Amino acid sequence: MSQELLKKVAESSMKDEIPDFRVGDTVNVSVRIVEGEKERIQIFSGTVIGRSGSGTSETLRVRRIVNNEGVERIFPLHSPKIASIEVVRSGKIRRAKLYYLRDRVGKATRPKEIQRKTQRKSVEAEE
Predict the structure, then answer these.
(1) SS3 string of 48-69?
(2) Is the four-CA dihedral 61, 76, 81, 33 of positive or negative sign?
(3) What does the angle CA 62 – CA 16 – CA 76 come to, to the nearest 5 degrees?
C-alpha cells in the first residue's frame, strides 16, 4: 500500500517535457531565480558531463568555462526551478561521465559534434 502511494506522489511531481539529451551534449538550462518578489529566468549553458539517479531524484551536471575558470552546476531534472532544457548541439562521446574535461583547456573541452536523427520520420508520415 505505501509503495503504491509513494509511486503516485513521485509520478505527480515528475515533468513530462524533458528533451532527449545525453552526456556530451551542449545544453541551455533555463533556471528560475527569485529575488525578493521578482522572478527572472537565467540561462546556464554548458556541456553535460554526467547524469545520475532515476525518477524524481535524477540530476544532470553541466560544466562551462567562465573567465578561464571552470564552473559546474548540478541540476535536479524534475525541479520546479528548472524552466526548460534546450539541446544546442550533440557530442560524440563514449563514456558515461566526462570528468576528464576538468583537466582540459580550450578546444580540448569540446566534444566532436554529431548530427542526431530528429523526428523527421513522424513529420514525413503526417504529410
Answers:
(1) EEEEECCHHHCEEEEEEEECCE
(2) negative
(3) 30
Q: What CATH fold (topology level) applies to the domain 15-126?
A: SH3 type barrels. (2.30.30)
% of the chain residues with pLDDT over 90: 58
Q: What distance lies between CA 46 and its chain's CA centroid?
A: 9
Starting at the edge strand that comes first in sequence, how are the strands of the sheet with 38-52 ordered? 69-76, 59-66, 38-52, 26-35, 82-91, 113-114
pLDDT in tens, 55-98: 888 999 999 999 989 999 999 999 999 999 999 999 999 999 99
Place of cell 528548472: 82
Q: 122's torsion region: left (phi>0), alpha (psi -120 to 50) or beta?
A: alpha
Cβ–Cβ < 8 Å for 86, 62: no
Amino acid type, 55: G
DSSP state of 31: E
Rounded Cα–Cα distance for residues 105 and 95 (Å): 19
> Out of 17-26, 80-89, 110-119, which region has the weakest mean confidence (pLDDT)?
110-119
